[in-house]
Each structure stands twice: as C-alpha cells, then as structure tokens.
Design goal:
5 helices, 120 residues, single chain, Arc Repressor Mutant, subunit A, flat
Amino acid sequence: MIRLRHIAVEPGVTIGELARRSGTVKSHVSKMMEQLVRQGYVEKRTDPADQRLVRVYVTRSAADSMAEMETRAREAWSGVVDEIPEAQLEQVVRGLRILLAALEQANGKANQDRTGDGHP
C-alpha cells in the first residue's frame, strides 16, 4: 500500500519506484496518484533531466496536515504511556519488541513471496 509518508520521505520518487516498493501494479499506483493529485495531496512534476519521468511530491498542505496528525498521535501515545506504571513499562517494551520482530519477519516473507526470492 502506498502512503503519503513514502512520498514525503523521498520527495521526487517515481510512480514506477513506488509500484516496485509496494509490490503493486504501476497502473494502480498511477490511478492512486491521480486521486491524490485531485485531492490536493500530491503534485506531479516532469523530471527536468528526463522528460519521460514523472516525479511525485507531497504538497505543502498535505505535509502540514501530516505534521499535525503526527503531533496529535505523539501526544495521545504519550498520555497512554504516562498511565502505565513504571514497573510494567519494561514488560510493555519487551512485548513491543517481540511484536516488531514478528512483523518484520512477516513483512520479509511477504516480500519474498511477491518477488519469488527465497523459492528454490
């Protein structure tokens, strides 16, 4: 799945590269980008060095909205963590590390399945 965060982290990424990274068909990513352009979240620009390439950028208003959401999420999580007793906080951290490792392993396996890597 393509997220605005992918484009914000790498301004000027191409639609083809977004498709490769997400394991999505380029035509679907292109349609999604058209929707995001219409909604004012993404701007498409032709690469000055290679007119055949179209690069995508997050708009200023989308970047501002993302920053505001990130701030709100951080504040919300901070409030939640503040409610956890200190003695239990290390248990929560250990559990989150286990969950993160499992998610990374599952993501790696899903990427192998999509690309065919890891298959004899």
